Amino acid sequence: MSSFLLPSSAPWAPPTAAARPCWLALATVAILVTSAVPRPASAAGAALSAPRPVGSVQDDGGLLGRGPVLATLRDRVIGAATRAGLPIAIVLVGTAGSSRQIDPASLEQTARTRFAEQGLADGADDAVLLLVAPRAAQSVLETGKGEAGIVPEIDARRITADLRRALRPRLSATALAGALAKTVDQIADSALETRERRRPLSAPPPDERAEASAPSSRHEGPRAPVGTRKEEAKSPPRRSLVPGAYALAIFVMLGLALRQRRRSNSRESNQATRRS
């Protein structure tokens, strides 16, 4: 490299032809090193690649406390969501001292709002949110798709009805967590059954399709009636008339030829007699 490094006092000159390969090698190494340096991902890319929540429990009023009861319920929800293959979220509203009734329409609107806030409405995948007001003994099951949700309407009504019967007054945190865990298992079971019903029927193997489409070797055509088959067996074999027709045609042609020859001979003899 000393061949093309110039002193600081010398004026700059373009590199010679012999030094150009070295400059190209240095530029290639710099480009490779720059491209190998990891770049921080943007906030938008990180938000798009963030996975959807699998299972979550949000207790607004602290009805379950912050101890092992809440942790155990959260593990149960995560297990049910993993088994069902879809996100499941539980949201508890109300406080321990509130027991007033809540308007069902308002509760349903709150469920739709929380469904979107939890990130469950993103994409076309299935998800379930269970909104529960324990002190008012009310609950709503939200799938984000109405009647086309992964939990059918008839199952949703049955699940929420069972949960409302379990929400007795002055229910302890442990009993409440047990009722919610049972409800989450019912949601997972309903989702699995619905997915199984929606699964398209699998096509038969290629061998079975070929056997079904191919005609049987024993029944290649329509079968004749029994009486017809017996008559065919008793009747003598029919002989072809073609050889006889050929023989008759030959005899006719020979007869016509002999007749024509006789006529010609008789004409010649008559002419000879007249000349004499």
Give structural notes.
It is a single chain. By secondary structure, the chain is an alpha/beta fold. The protein has 9 helices and 4 strands, in the order H-H-E-H-E-H-E-E-H-H-H-H-H. The chain has a 4-stranded mixed beta sheet, sandwiched between helices. The termini are far apart. Residues 1-9 and 39-50 have low confidence and may be disordered.
Note the topology.
Layout: H1 20-36, H2 43-49, E1 55-59, H3 68-84, E2 88-92, H4 104-117, E3 128-133, E4 138-142, H5 153-166, H6 173-198, H7 206-213, H8 226-234, H9 242-275
Parallel strand pairs: 1-2, 2-3
Antiparallel strand pairs: 3-4
Main structural class: alpha/beta
User: Mind telling me the CATH class of the domain at 52-196?
Assistant: Alpha Beta
Bin the helical content.
40-55%
CATH topology of the domain at 52-196: Diaminopimelate Epimerase, Chain A, domain 1
Strand content: 5-15%
Number of strands: 4
Number of distinct helices: 9
Can you write the helix and strand succession as a string? HHEHEHEEHHHHH
Which blocks of ≥5 consecutive residues have pLDDT under 50? 1-9, 39-50
Strand order of the largest sheet: 1-2-3-4
Tell me, briefly, the overall form.
Answer: rod-shaped
Largest sheet: 4 strands, mixed
Radius of gyration: 49 Å
